[in-house]
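Progress note, sequence design subtask.
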């Protein structure tokens, strides 16, 4: 499920109260409910919107141990405030965060996306619904075909503030009549247009396309096309889920506006396993930025957001950003959160007593690359304690090692044999 790229204020804060330890203790509020104890016990608070700093709420940060989430809601949990640090996406109840990627008592900010379908039956009709107010409220009109001038419609010209899109369809909204002016492509429910390219109360015409996919939710179920990204490169895509225009780069790009992918269009990307990328909001590597590696199917869940990248630095080794140096010059040991060297990654040239202090995090490692001449020892516990496994070569899956998948908490690096 996708997230709006704008950061909205908290819509509803339920009182912080003590709950009895029974299974029916789920707060009635629609949203995500955080509990201070495991198994949905202890004090709780419900949120229906993004919260950049839980420390500013009655719940406070670094307290969550379990959570419940309403049907129709999805959330991204972050270990640091302002939607940074380790993260995990949830769309179902979590009775204990102790062994989760985010960890127990570490939650500092959250993104929440909830929707109610209202009385629109998208199973029997397909199209786009425009609303005059945010959060799908106010006057509403459903469109099943293009409209070059909204002035004579119920919704009216320069009135749309939120949008719903039936599964499998997309809407292109324009700030001027006759499909001119600024525009934005919407493929999912959007509670507010304020931070999109067109903005609130500016839509004057729209195009509706429900023929790109055969049926509604097939887009989420079909296998993705195999697009291999060279290990020393990054491939950028104009649409989410690795769709739309694409272009592969092997070096820094100070002006994405001069490329095929274009400026302020980036929606997903694949980073070669030997690299990491820093994306900037403005050209010449200026403005807000985010550092990424692995595959990112939707930029909306990143610190930079969707359709905001204007320049990029590419790092494929420890020699710094720019033209990528050979793989042998980068970190000696690379840990991956996914098997077969997928997911988030981080490279190390020295031992680490506690992976909780690193970007890849604790209890996440599932595959490892080992540079020639090196040896790494993984431990289940911090401070080089607990069950361990010694690796001398690349290991695509830790499942059959003595440490196992998603269990490493510290590592020792030994490259003296080089």
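Output:
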């Amino acid at each position: 499920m996708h997230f709006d790229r704008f950061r909205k204020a908290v819509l509803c804060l339920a009182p912080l109260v003590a709950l009895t330890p029974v299974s029916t203790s789920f707060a009635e509020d629609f949203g995500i409910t955080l509990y201070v104890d495991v198994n949905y016990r202890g004090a709780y608070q419900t949120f229906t919107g993004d919260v950049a700093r839980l420390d500013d709420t009655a719940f406070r940060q670094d307290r969550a141990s379990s959570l419940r989430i309403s049907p129709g809601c999805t959330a991204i949990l972050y270990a640091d405030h302002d939607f940074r640090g380790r993260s995990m996406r949830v769309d179902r109840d979590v009775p204990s965060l102790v062994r989760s990627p985010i960890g127990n008592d570490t939650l500092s900010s959250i993104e929440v996306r909830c929707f109610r379908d209202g009385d629109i039956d998208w199973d029997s009709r397909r199209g786009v619904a425009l609303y005059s107010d945010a959060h799908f409220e106010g006057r509403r009109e459903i469109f099943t075909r293009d409209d070059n001038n909204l002035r004579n419609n119920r919704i009216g010209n320069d009135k749309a503030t939120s949008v719903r899109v039936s599964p499998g369809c997309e809407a292109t909204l324009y700030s001027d009549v006759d499909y001119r002016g600024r525009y934005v492509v919407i493929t999912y429910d959007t509670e507010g247009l304020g931070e999109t390219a067109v903005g609130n109360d500016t839509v004057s015409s729209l195009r509706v396309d429900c023929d790109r996919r055969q049926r509604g939710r097939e887009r989420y179920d079909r296998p993705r096309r195999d697009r291999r990204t060279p290990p020393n490169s990054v491939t950028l895509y104009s649409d989410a889920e690795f769709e739309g225009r694409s272009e592969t780069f092997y070096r820094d790009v100070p002006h994405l506006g001069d490329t095929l992918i274009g400026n302020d269009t980036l929606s997903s990307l694949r980073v070669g396993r030997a690299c990491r990328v820093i994306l900037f909001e403005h050209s010449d590597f200026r403005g807000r930025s985010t550092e990424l590696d692995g595959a990112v199917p939707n930029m909306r869940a990143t610190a930079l957001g969707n359709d905001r990248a204007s320049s990029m630095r590419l790092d494929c080794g420890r020699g710094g950003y720019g033209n990528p140096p050979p793989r042998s010059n980068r970190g000696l040991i690379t840990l991956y959160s996914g098997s077969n060297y997928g997911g988030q990654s981080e490279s190390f040239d020295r031992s680490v007593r506690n992976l909780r202090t690193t970007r890849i995090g604790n209890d996440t490692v599932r595959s490892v690359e080992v540079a020639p001449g090196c040896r790494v020892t993984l431990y289940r516990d911090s401070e080089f304690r607990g069950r361990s496994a010694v690796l001398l070569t690349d290991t695509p899956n830790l499942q059959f090692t003595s440490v196992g998948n998603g269990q490493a908490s510290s590592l020792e690096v030994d490259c003296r044999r080089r």
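The radius of gyration is 23 Å. Work on this subtask will continue into the next period as scheduled.
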